[in-house]
Write a structure and sequence with these properties.
The protein has 375 residues and is an alpha/beta fold. The protein has 15 helices and 14 strands. The protein has an 8-stranded mixed β-sheet, sandwiched between helices. Strands 11-10-9-12-13-14 form a 6-stranded parallel β-sheet, with helices on both faces. It is elongated and about 65 Å long. The two termini are 19 Å apart.
Amino acid sequence: MHVAQINFLPVPAGRAHAEVLDQWHSLGDVADAVASSGTRVSVIQTAARQDLITRNGIDYHFVDVSGLDAATSRGRRFASLLVEIKVDVLHAHGLGFAEDAFAVSQCLPQLPIIMQDHADRPPRWWRRPRWRRWYAAMAGVAFTAPELARPFTRAGLFEPHARLFAIPESSTRFTMGSRAHARAQTGLHGDPCVLWVGHLNAGKDPLTVLDGVARAARQLPGLQLWCAFGSAPLLDEVQTRVARDPQLSGRVHLLGKVAHGQVETLMRAADLFVSGSHAESCGFVVLEALACGVTPVVTDIPSFRALIGGSRVGHLWPCGDATRLAEALVDAAASRPSPAHVRAHFDAALSFAAVGRQWADAYAQVQDDRQRRTS
């Protein structure tokens, strides 16, 4: 089977194509995951000039659509390439690009198309009739968790024939390492040593996490919380909360922004990973924590439930509930699985090989569906 993955989001003006592949990790990561299953993969990327780059045995076709303002015109150009390279299934990134995917389907009505969610939202109600028509051409749609499809299905946006797949949005190349070496390298310590990686904003809810840590510290006097973050609109509130609470002062360490590679070392040093997110389409930092063998203590939201599953490698707590977070931290500190056990769950369900197998199965299903309908 030959699958093409297409990204309709254009390359930014002036950006070198090789640089795009280096910086847009998911573009190559999802392709690598599928290729690991033995499926032949090509990638099509919307661009302002034609180019072909081959990496890891995968062809990346940069397709020049400059001057093609209409989706129908772009669709014909993409369809021409898909016919040329003889594609069996098209995997389109982003539910927000339904019009472009529909345009391709009008040129190649026998080509099964699966769309993959990337934190997309349903259109406004007055736009939905048009979007229903576009989505009707899709053979399947993939979300990290089935519950994430509900806003779309409640709005009646998908046809009954469209298959819904639960497949992690991507995977990670992070690996386990020596905890002692990582702690010596980073200076992290604690019993337990708890790590936070995420923006300090309302959606990540750092203030509830601080409240939960303060309560848990009464039973876990050795607990230390280390916070790596990017944007920080709540930084002043976080600093004030830490300074005024003797349970947090000296226990919470604000590391600021760190390089992505350094996050791997931080995770290797940690015992527990904590998140207060209210919504995620996947949760890449949780994937990374699991890959490093760290026990997650994260909010009970659909994507995190899907990543942890029934594996018992982590703890879930209700969004905004500091008391339940404190209980989860105490429980996790008392009876957390070994790093090897956490990593085994990642390898079995969330690794590139595991994600690739899930995609290969999804492609086979929509191809079989199309063949049955046309026979």
